[in-house]
Write a structure and sequence with these properties.
Layout lengths: L3 H10 L11 E6 L2 E6 L13 H20 L2 E7 L8 E10 L4 H9 L19 H11 L3 E4 L3 H19 L2 H10 L21 E3 L25 E3 L2 E7 L4 H19 L4 E4 L7 H11 L4 E9 L18
Parallel strand pairs: 6-7
Antiparallel strand pairs: 1-2, 2-4, 3-4, 5-8, 8-10, 9-10
Length: 323
């Protein structure tokens, strides 16, 4: 039987975001240690043939677990890929001596329960000063870099890559079939239909194309119809997380940095949404790297802003993922 501290860590880690809410992880508690293992049965065959997004998702769960351990006043040593011969063992979180959490660790742990992915419109209110620098600082500790899209040319490049990549995905019937498998289920996995459908008013559109969960890559136009004025174009904060190398260890680290960033944002009421098509498949990632002149490998792109507290996705209880 897991200790109260172990149980608290598992409950929080299970709330981490994952690609299409697949929750592709399993846990094994041994004394004061938690093994994080890949659940390959939840790996996306079309969008994630290499398992990169599975690793990023599990990296976020690892960071959630780490912060949960700190919030209950325990030291937590995170060892990524501790056994080179066991590729399914992604990490071990070992709980150590008693040490009170820092105020930041406590705030971020408290944000775990309220963080959610908001795919709807965001307000024009700018994110708090210092947020991006905080994200960069923590990311650098994990050997991850963060880039913003402030230059118009960079935003145009991202928009083009997003649009072309999603159009390419929509031309493959496997893409729509996989989306249908994970969007709208009634259980505790996948993305509920109410979280993706009918969310945007007719007078507002995003500057960047957001994933069309029907699989058709259809998006509202920024042009006005007839005598109607053109809709307001929303220009959110856009962030790219990247790494020097492009291997499972780097993917896990990128996921940890992403998880910390999402909680840091949630702690001040800022929401986020992944811009998946830009990094779904290798060709899109390579094009993004080339178009932006990156020295390194793009791992994840998100938009951030103040949302409207929309529906949250469900999670499997941590006890169902123990083995």
């Amino acid at each position: 039987m897991a200790s109260d501290d172990i149980a608290a860590v598992l409950d929080c880690a299970a709330l981490a975001p994952s690609v299409h809410n697949t929750q592709p992880w399993q846990w094994r508690a041994v004394d004061d240690a938690i093994e994080v293992r890949a659940d390959r049965s939840r790996q996306l065959a079309y969008l994630d043939p290499t398992g990169r997004q599975l690793h990023v998702s599990c990296g976020a769960a690892i960071e959630f677990g780490y912060l949960a351990a700190r919030s209950v006043g325990r030291e937590c040593d995170v060892r990524l890929q501790p056994d080179g011969a066991d590729g399914e063992l992604l990490a071990v979180l070992e709980l150590g001596e008693v040490r009170p959490p820092t105020p930041t660790e406590q705030r971020l742990a408290e944000a775990i329960a309220v963080r959610y992915t908001d795919r709807g419109p965001y307000s024009d209110r700018p994110v708090p000063e210092g947020l991006v620098e905080d994200l960069r600082r923590r990311a650098a500790e994990l050997e991850v870099w963060v880039r913003t899209f402030e230059r118009p040319d960079d935003r145009r490049a991202l928009i083009t890559v997003l649009s072309d990549a999603e159009q390419e995905e929509a031309r493959d019937s496997r893409y729509a079939a996989e989306l249908a498998q994970w969007v709208g289920p009634t259980g505790d996995v996948g993305v509920p239909a109410e979280a993706v459908a009918g969310r945007w008013p007719s007078d507002r559109v995003s500057q960047v194309p957001l994933r069309d969960f029907t699989g058709r890559a259809e998006h509202p136009s920024a042009e006005g119809r007839g005598d109607d004025p053109p809709p307001t174009v929303e220009r959110d904060l856009l962030l790219l997380f990247g790494t020097a190398s492009d291997d499972p260890g780097a993917w896990l680290s990128a996921g940890r940095a992403l998880g910390w960033a999402l909680l840091r944002a949630a702690a001040v009421g800022v929401s986020a949404q992944p811009l998946g098509p830009a990094i779904d498949l290798p060709a899109a990632r390579e094009r993004l790297r080339h178009e932006l002149g990156l020295v390194g490998n793009p791992q994840f792109v998100v938009r951030m802003g103040y949302g409207a507290d929309r529906p949250r996705t469900r999670r499997r209880p941590a006890t169902t993922t123990l083995n």
